[in-house]
Amino acid sequence: MIRNNAQRWGSISIGLHWLTALLIIGLAIVGLIMTELPNSPLKMQIYALHKSFGLTVLALTLLRLAWRLVAGTPDDQPGSRLQRLAAKAVHGLMYFLLLAMPLSGWLFNSAAGFPLRWFNLVQLPKLFTGYNPALKDIAHDLHETGFTLLAALLLVHAGAALFHHYVVKDNTLKRMTGKMP
Ligand code: HEM
Ligand code: HEM
Known about the structure:
Elements: H1 11-34, H2 41-71, H3 81-111, E1 116-118, E2 122-124, H4 133-168, H5 174-177
Antiparallel strand pairs: 1-2
Helix pairs in contact: 1-2, 2-3, 3-4
This protein binds protoporphyrin IX containing FE (2 copies).
One protoporphyrin IX containing FE binds next to helix 1, helix 3, helix 4 and helix 5.
């Protein structure tokens, strides 16, 4: 089933969710390690890959939000008003960070005056021209703080998914893994 319906997520939303999750975990591990590496051509290559995969998350998130508008979302799971509100807030913030992380990275790159190519295939424009150390610092802080927030939300989010699955024993996780009866 490609589209979403009232009971479950369709294959496109499921595919985009887990591909994004995989990319974020990879980007986080590589991002945290790469800054500690000594300067070398390898370090440059790893940075370039981090940026290209990060920009891929930006594209996938835009696609995912567009698809969400077209294909709709399953009904809310039963739960208190507060639970539903918390889920919506966490999901909304995660979407925001899935856009803000790559954009702050792009801004950082632009302010540092570096060119940006997506997998050596597509040249991306600078978000503005010229070297700007003050903006570079701000963008760097946003990238770091954004990541800390995203990591905290991921813990809450994955914890909530496991709570639904093992404690409440409802279909929340099953409908995002395509395993719903
Ligand atoms: C960095 C990794 C992740 C990100 C950025 C992320 C993000 C999101 C977002 C934004 C939604 C809302 C979907 C929508 O309403 O359009 C969602 C749904 C969901 N996520 Fe994740 N997620 C991640 C990892 C995980 C993990 C590890 C699990 C399981 C342990 C998980 C389980 C779920 C489930 C079950 C839903 C569906 C909730 C529902 O149907 O109401 N996610 N995720
Ligand atoms: C969702 C996408 C992304 C995630 C989750 C992510 C995550 C991270 C993390 C965790 C770090 C380490 C932070 C630190 O210790 O300084 C980092 C560093 C970095 N990221 Fe990203 N990133 C993403 C996208 C991007 C993009 C699109 C670019 C550029 C176009 C980028 C450029 C950089 C750079 C240049 C650094 C190193 C900063 C330094 O040398 O101090 N990132 N990223």
